[in-house]
Structure formats: structure tokens, C-alpha cells
Amino acid sequence: MRVAIDSTPLTVSSGGIPRYTSALSKALAADFPEDEFIQLTDQGREGLSNLERRWWAYGLPKQLRRLKVDVFHGPDFAVPYLPVCPAVMTVHDLSPWMNPAWHHGAGRIRRRTPFLLKLGLATMVITDCEAVRREVMARFRLPAERVVAIPLAADESFRPAETPAKEPYFLFVGTLEPRKNIPFLVEAWKRLYAEIPVKLVLAGRRRADCPPIKPHPELEIIGEVTDASLPDLYSGALAVVYPSLYEGFGLPVLEAMACGTPVIASRDPALVELAGGTVIHCDADDAGQWVDAMRTMIVNENRRSQLQQAGLQRSREFSWRRTATLTREVYVEAIARFRRRSG
């Protein structure tokens, strides 16, 4: 099987979609050496809409024909505009359609993706969890047999670190953007800090539309962190705090669990599905709940230990190898469906 994967997400330095694209591509190549996996992108896009349209409408289909690709996978809400071969689209979540304030630059996705789905240009659709699968089927009126939920995974490098942290801290990891509810987290943490002085660390790329974050002497915003240093950062935290308003999966939550770090997360359906009862869930708008949960992580060592062990056990149920295997099954189904439809 010859598979072409859109590698455009890899031009972004960090985030869930680049990590998904990279980890899945590596797992597919490692586990299915009999197949050929080709990464394709438009090197001249530079964010220009006219160039982008020409690539998806003409340039990419031409490349797929030339390379005799058996199936195309778009890991970022897109597939070619012409049905030259079976195509699989990953729809990570519905955040671009839920609140325009969450994605100032998602106009292209909001316009294009529904069109591609309606015309059947995406032969099969992948989501990261069952909760989003149900949302996608309902919003775009897709039949159940055309949408498959395939969970993500944490890299094998995410494991408990042996070196303890010098001082206690709570940790958020992820892109700093409106949907992540960062100002709310900071205000809740400040209430706790007035009672018990434990610092808060925010790690991740700060997007241009990130809301203002009020400074505090013990609030540390460290920016992007290398993959190699993330396991130590997770392992040293009292807990990872993740008050996201909406998620498609919640990869930092799983990475923290794999490092043996307790997690406090919102009650978002995707996060509840991922955690499987192994984290503390709080309402995303109730600061009191977050203060109580963070306080528990400081004063109740037994509860921390319970969450650590439960999270570790739960994290072992996910692997990129399993993700790759299930994804390849979708490729096979897409090819069969495309052939039936074409002839």
C-alpha cells in the first residue's frame, strides 16, 4: 500500500496536531514496513489563500496521480478537492465551529471542511475519541460506518522521572490559547496561593490570540519546551492542571498520567473519556472546585498516590502502535469503499 500523508502540520513548532502527524507517521512506518508512506506538502504556501487553493485543487491531485498513491490521509481537517484516490480526513474536534473566539485563524477550516465532507471527498473520517465522533456525525450528518474513533497515545519517552523537583509546583502544558481557559486557571491558583504558596508553571507555545495573563511573582511562563525535557517537567509537578473548555482528546493529560503525575482536569467529555475515572474533574467555571482540588494535591499524599497509580495504569492502555494499526485498518476500508463507489 502506498500512503500519502499531508505533512503541512509539521511546519508548526508544537501542538497536538503536529505531534499527532509526527507520531502516527513514525508508528506507521515502523509497524508496516511493507507499505510506503510519503509525506506531501505545498512548500510555497506561506499562508496565501490563492496558492493554497491551487495546491489542494490541482497541485496535490497531480502529485497523487504521479506517485500512484493508494490512499491519502489529511491529519488536519483537509483532503484534496478532487477525488483522484481514497482520502481519509482526521477531524480532531469541532472547536472551529463552536466559538469563533477560540480560533482567530480558522476561517479556512470553517469554510472548507464541511464542503469536503458534504461532497464525500473524505472517504472516511477519523476522530480522536468517541465523544467527538458523535459530535461529527451529528453536525455533518455523516453515517456511523464512515466515522471511526481512534485514540492517540503518549510517546514511550513519557515515564516517571527519577530526579525530584527542587520545589513544588502545579503545571499546565499546552498551547496558550483562548480555549485552554488560562486566565481562569491563574485566578483560581492565586486564591490557593494566598493560602498555600505553591508556584504555577505554564509551558507551551503562546498563540497570538492568547488572552492577557496577569503577572504574579510565582507564576512562571516558560514557553515551548523540548520533547526531551517534558517528562522531567511532568514528573516534578504536584499535579497537572488542565481546565480546558473543550478538547478533542487532551494529549497533555495522557502524557502526565504516563509520567505518574496526578491530573486535575475539566469535565469536558473527551477528557472524561480519556481519563476513565483516574483524574480529578472540576467544572471549568468553578474556581472553588479547582482550589479544593489543588489543595488536596498538597495536603493529601494518599490521594496523590492513588491518582498516580491509577493514571499510570490507565496510560498503559494507549500506544501509538495501536493507533497506527487502527488507522491502517481505516485506510483499507477507505480503499474498499472508494472502489465500490467508483465502479
Describe the protein's architecture and organization.
This protein is of the alpha/beta class and 343 residues long. The chain has two domains: 175 residues, 3-Layer(aba) Sandwich (Rossmann fold); 147 residues, Rossmann fold (3-Layer(aba) Sandwich). 43% of the residues lie in helices and 15% in strands. It is built from twelve helices and twelve strands. The protein has a six-stranded parallel β-sheet, sandwiched between helices. Strands 9-8-7-10-11-12 form a six-stranded parallel β-sheet, with helices on both faces. Helix 8 links the parallel strand 10 and strand 11. The longest helix is centred in the C-terminal third of the chain and has 23 residues. It is elongated and about 70 Å long. The two termini are 20 Å apart. The relative contact order is 0.14. About 2% of the residues have low confidence.
Number of helices: 12
Q: What is the approximate shape? A: elongated
Major sheet: arrangement of strands: 2-1-3-4-5-6
Flag low-confidence runs: 45-50
List keywords for this structure.
6-stranded parallel β-sheet, Rossmann fold, elongated, 12 helices
